[in-house]
Amino acid sequence: MENIALIESFSEFKDDKLIDRVTLMAILEDVFRNALKKKYGSDDNFDIIINPDKGDMEIWRNRVVVADDEVEDENQEIALSEARKIEPDFEVGEDVSEEVKLIDLGRRSILALRQNLISKIHEHDNTNLYKQFKDLVGEIYSAEVHHVRPKVVILVDDEGNEIVLPKEKQIPSDFFRKGDNVKGIIEHVELKGNKPQIVMSRTSEKFLEKLFEQEIPEVFDGLITIKKVVRIPGEKAKVAVDSYDDRIDPVGACVGMKGSRIHGIVRELQNENIDVINYTNNPQLLITRALSPAKVSSVKIDEDKKTAEVYLKLEEVSKAIGRGGQNIKLAGFLTGYDLDVIREGATAEEDDVELTEFSDEIDGWVIDEFAKIGLDTARSVLKHSVEDLVRRTDLEEETVREVVKILKEEFED
């Protein structure tokens, strides 16, 4: 009964760790064999018999009987006189099996056994956790906010597993409180020492793709294929979809009546503006669709350089470029081409001047701000009021007024 009592003492935390008794017994055997090696130098001549149903185990040491004055290895050999204390009819050369009680290992050894057992079970627990979440990489997962820190949000799932959501994996407008339920994608799992670190992301393109699978039955069933997803988290995204069934309108199915199907996805992504377009193998047509809502007049592609000149009417340029240059940037990511906007209808007599010509008077970053909203010539800037330019760019009113003054002086001269 000594062994049973000690094993139950060692395994009192078994239920908390959700480890089955058979696994626990296997770990116990490994732990006890290490203890036997430390005490006796070897465990080769020990038999450990485990009964997982009863939670019992026995340890037997096997030795060979030798004459009293011929004992060279006390672990492997036993003196005849000692053997006959166990059984009076033992003879030299016979094998003796003697049970070792755990208590015989000594108090310190038992304490060390317990610590080693706890360590082994944690190691087993972490290995299983690593494997479990490794299989979930790329899948949507939900967990509750446990702690909010400046650079990371700590989440805990229903089983008590800790998941981290780093600041850079959060949508910029995300705001979390303790107890909030957070949805994201398991982006990767890595071992930090012996402990697995599970990292969630809400900014991954894969997260948006999986949300489509979750919310749109045709995508889940494979009737609609998502060909590519690009996004600026929390701001704008473009999703190219296709269907091999001509009876299905992939864009209509994804968006739904009055946006009913995509509304939940937009809300989950903090009102991220999502453009869904029909995929095509025709690069000119794909570029045209990717620049929606702008109406493209024509596209000229250079396959060697992977660039494309996109010709647009003047009134369509700002739509193609989008706020902060987001639309044209995402269109480039989606199509795989560097896109250059060419304005139609700009005549020579307008005597326009590229903004880059003013780089000695206007800082480059200021010129870039105007380019982001499709204004890269002097006259294109002067067509707008100062108030409009301030509203559409990230520039201060004083900076805009100074730029306008410089440009006006150019044409006055």
TrEMBL record:
Residues 284-344 form the NusA-like second KH domain. One of its GO terms (biological process) is transcription antitermination. It is found in: Cytoplasm. Residues 6-125 form the Transcription factor NusA N-terminal domain. GO terms for molecular function: DNA-binding transcription factor activity; RNA binding. Keywords: Cytoplasm, RNA-binding, Transcription, Transcription antitermination, Transcription regulation, Transcription termination. InterPro entries: KH_dom-like_a/b (IPR015946), KH_NusA_2nd (IPR058582), KH_sf_prok-type (IPR009019), NA-bd_OB-fold (IPR012340), NusA_N_sf (IPR036555), TF_NusA (IPR010213), TF_NusA_bacterial (IPR030842), TF_NusA_KH_1st (IPR025249). It comes from the Bacteria. Belongs to the NusA family. Monomer. Binds directly to the core enzyme of the DNA-dependent RNA polymerase and to nascent RNA. Participates in both transcription termination and antitermination. This is Transcription termination/antitermination protein NusA. It comes from Flavobacterium croceum DSM 17960. The gene is nusA.
